[in-house]
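Blinded run. Sample ID left blank on purpose so nobody reads anything into the name before looking at the predicted structure. Input follows.
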Amino acid sequence: MNFDWTNPLWITSQALALVALILFVIGMQMKTKNKTLFVFVIGLAFYAGSAALLSNWIMVGIFVLAMIRNVVFLLLDRHSAKVPRWASVFTLVLFMVATVTMVAFTWNWWFDFVILGFSLFSIFGAWAKGIHMIRIANACISTVVTVNNIVNANLIGVVIEVVIIISIIVFYIGFFVRRRRARRCSGLVPPAPESGDVLAVDSVAES
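Blinded prediction complete.
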């Protein structure tokens, strides 16, 4: 399918992708992993609908599996004290195997296997503890999905992935600025030298 502004299916697919875009941006700014996963589940439902209207079946499969995976991992995180470690690892492996199987039956060209590799990394990122791994994994998978969306004429899909990448970059810029400011306030980082203060400049360079 091409970028056809007169095709109702294409227009509808872009409208669904636009809703997904808004939800993903909101999700990437969440402070906790659980909130991020919850918003992503809703966004993925709209994104899967958009891909289906474009007959992009490999992405439909990946998005649907991602929805199920995020719900399961959300529940595992919420009840982590009651879930045995082996059950958590088994769930991770199960979703990886399901993703490999789905791609094996839906792939169209060699790049789909690149998407598969980054999808497996994304699965691990959603399973792992902490918010940073899931953001890094999302940045990686968004890079390759951008290419897929270009090939499949999903204009808003391209925007979604670019915005996700930019949102992650903006988050980490703010994160490191806040951390550096906190360290400076605690005295761990020397204050910036004032103009003309040669001794201060030398001491910073030596440190």
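Unblinding after everyone has recorded impressions. The chain has one domain: 8-206.
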